[in-house]
Amino acid sequence: GQQVMQIPQYQHVQEGEDFTTYCNSSTTLSNIQWYKQRPGGHPVFLIQLVKSGEVKKQKRLTFQFGEAKKNSSLHITATQTTDVGTYFCAALIYNQGGKLIFGQGTELSVKP
Amino acid sequence: GAGVSQTPSNKVTEKGKYVELRCDPISGHTALYWYRQSLGQGPEFLIYFQGTGAADDSGLPNDRFFAVRPEGSVSTLKIQRTERGDSAVYLCASSLGRAGRPGGELFFGEGSRLTVL
Predict the structure, then answer these.
(1) For chain A, N or C: smaller number of CB within 10 Å?
(2) Would you give the DSSP letter of residue B86?
(3) Which residue of A94, A99, A107 to mutate against B (max B Cβ within 10 Å)?
(4) Residue B72 and residue B49: Cα distance in Å, rounded?
(5) How does pLDDT run across A62-81, given as a tens digit for each residue?
């Protein structure tokens, strides 16, 4: 069954608005990675979070790993048209070896 | 090459046929993953190699699917008796190290689009 749930499935925003996608699991995660996939492209690595409560920033992007290591979020401030794409979280489930399990993704569209 | 290379980029086959999909990872990357992705879905894990051995093949849907990496570099995903439900983009990714550690990020290829008629 699905071990990593991601919401929302779609998000349509006006350019300049903020955007957040959430990744949740019922089981403890060893670490979590975030990827972006542009339409017609392949997933591209954004960041990796390992520590409980970890927060990392990349320009307008803020990534968080929950204190219990069961959830994560990606927040984009003031979206731009270049942010369009699908954002995936990928989690390493604790005690389940080295396979990365991807969420279903959140597709972001930005209206100029 | 500089990135992960996958061939063929497109494969159209008939139901019941055998197909092979090839992945050439980034030089020096010890970990290699196969995923498949259907339209509007996230990548679905199939198998993960660490070196030559399959560290986890729990995602292979059934015994029609098999993957090898004989020399710890190039990998081939083999699908026997293809079915229409096998149609998807098959993605290969490699990483320098294990996920969760430095160098654990995945570098994906462009994918092989398989269509089974």
Answers:
(1) N
(2) G
(3) A99
(4) 8
(5) 999 999 999 999 999 999 99
Backbone CA torsion sign across B34, A32, A81, A15 = positive
pLDDT of B98 reads 77
Average pLDDT on B103-108 reads 90
Tell me which chain B residues have a C-beta less than 8 angstroms from the C-beta of A30.
Answer: 99-100
CA distance B19 to chain A (A): 22
How far does the CA of residue B22 sit from the closest CA of chain A (Å)?
16
Q: A112 CA to chain B: closest CA distance, Å? A: 23
- Averaged pLDDT, A24-39: 94
Mean pLDDT for chain B overall: 94
Q: Which residues contact A20 (CB under 8 A, 6 or more apart)?
A: A73, A74, A75, A76
> Which of A81-95, B9-23, B53-67 is predicted most confidently?
B9-23
Residues B108, A43: C-beta atoms closer than 8 Å: yes
